[in-house]
């Protein structure tokens, strides 16, 4: 009684940060922002925070190319949880323990860890105001920015812009109210991901996130990386910590070469085929 003739997809997530993954290694795939938004819609599409397209390697040194689109249709350069998911798929497919994924943010090395975890080198933390970017020359350790109860964030670039606000209680912050204002603040020419963070104890930090183009999500890999870097720069933590997100825990380490290593789980929710009305 039921037929499905559209493009195959996988629904995956990392700690509840969820993705629709499309494999375009065998054909070309062009997506408009409207098509991405239709697929990401949780009432009328598949529903996701980000849509991921896996394409053929472009530089000759990686296993695949990964394109990342937020739920609003905008394309972005980095997504840590999605990188883990795609890395796991490639390792399952190849039988290897390590893969290299090519993104707009550069080449990302990933490897399988015990307990079903995947570790990804997310590249160096970018701390110069031009590399985040922000709109004017400033000390990124103390961005001159305040909205409502939030003030004095740390700016960090992890392939996408982040502003990390340290607060006494992350649960008390109305992130749905302040998040969209800060995301689109004129101080961030490319918009920004907004994190509120609370140091629970040495080596353990609670974090909530408003992602640009997606809103509140249960987890954000690059946001967890940015939070650890920000805490270490402020002297609130060392260079390694557990980041406690709404969806679970990520292990983050800011290595001596300034690269940031992220370790966490991967899950497949379901697979299917898109209805022709949704198929790109």
Topology of this protein?
Elements: E1 8-14, E2 17-23, H1 33-40, E3 50-55, E4 64-70, E5 75-76, H2 80-94, E6 98-103, E7 106-112, E8 117-124, E9 146-147, E10 150-151, E11 154-157, E12 161-166, H3 175-183, E13 193-201, E14 204-211, E15 215-217, H4 221-233, E16 240-245, E17 248-254, E18 259-265, E19 267-273
Parallel strand pairs: 2-3, 4-6, 12-13, 14-16
Antiparallel strand pairs: 1-2, 1-19, 3-4, 4-5, 6-7, 7-8, 8-18, 9-10, 11-12, 13-14, 14-15, 16-17, 17-18
Task: Identify the notable features of this structure and list them briefly.
single chain, 280 residues, alpha+beta, Diaminopimelate Epimerase, Chain A, domain 1, 2 domains, 17-stranded mixed sheet, globular
Describe this structure in words.
By secondary structure, the chain is α+β, with helices and mostly antiparallel strands. It has 2 domains: 8-121 and 265-273, Diaminopimelate Epimerase, Chain A, domain 1 (Roll); 124-263, Roll (Diaminopimelate Epimerase, Chain A, domain 1). The chain has helices spanning 33-40, 80-94, 175-183, 221-233; strands at residues 8-14, 17-23, 50-55, 64-70, 75-76, 98-103, 106-112, 117-124, 146-147, 150-151, 154-157, 161-166, 193-201, 204-211, 215-217, 240-245, 248-254, 259-265, 267-273. The strands form 2 sheets. The chain has a 17-stranded mixed sheet that branches. A hairpin with a 2-residue loop joins strand 16 (240-245) and strand 17 (248-254). It is globular and about 50 Å long. The mean pLDDT is 95.
